[in-house]
Amino acid sequence: ATIEQMVALAALMPIVASMGGNAGTQTMTVTVRALATRDLDGVRVRRLIVREVSGGFLNGCIFATLLGVITALRYLSPSLGVVIGLAMIVNMIAAGSAGILIPLALDRMKVDPAIASSVFVTTVTDVVGFFAFLGLAGLWFGLF
């Protein structure tokens, strides 16, 4: 129903998911490398989690601003710009969180995070990106 109401959503949905996927993959790569080189202990893990989630928020805000302005101008809809910006922030935070927590969890379960992490991180960022964007659009535009 949301896509039927606003065709622009169909064009913009993949942008939110792919940006989150890229950010999550980068965070995952840093985490897997740190695990492989045994650079993580209790204090460093907490610091890395805080740094990556904070970085996700900051990147989300930066990309939200850029993408929100471009979207608002392209589709002549400031509301759509706000929606995609908020979805970007949510997804970038999820990407930072998933990119660090999934490899750490897999490592604790004795599963090689270098092999298994990417599927889970991509799934999280895609699902969160689509739900955040379409959910916010539905609430904002009263489509649900």
Overview of the structural elements:
The protein is mostly helical and 144 residues long. The chain has a single domain, classed as Orthogonal Bundle (Tetracycline Repressor, domain 2). The protein is 89% helix and 0% strand. The protein is built from 5 helices and no strands. Helix 2 (7-36) runs antiparallel to helix 3, helix 3 (42-75) runs antiparallel to helix 4 (78-108) and helix 4 packs antiparallel against helix 5. The radius of gyration is 16 Å and the shape is elongated.
Low-confidence stretches: none
Give the CATH H-level superfamily.
Answer: SLC41 divalent cation transporters, integral membrane domain
Report the helical percentage.
over 70%
Approximately how much beta-strand content do the residues carry?
under 5%
How would you state the average pLDDT, rounded?
Answer: 90
Number of distinct helices: 5
* β-strand number: 0
Q: How many domain modules?
A: 1
Tell me the structural class: mainly alpha
N-to-C order of helices and strands: HHHHH
Topology (elements, then pairings):
Elements: H1 2-5, H2 7-36, H3 42-75, H4 78-108, H5 113-141
Helix pairs in contact: 2-3, 2-4, 2-5, 3-4, 4-5
Descriptors:
single chain, mainly alpha, 144 residues, Tetracycline Repressor, domain 2, 5 helices
Briefly say what this structure is.
This protein is mainly alpha-helical. It has helices at 2-5, 7-36, 42-75, 78-108, 113-141.
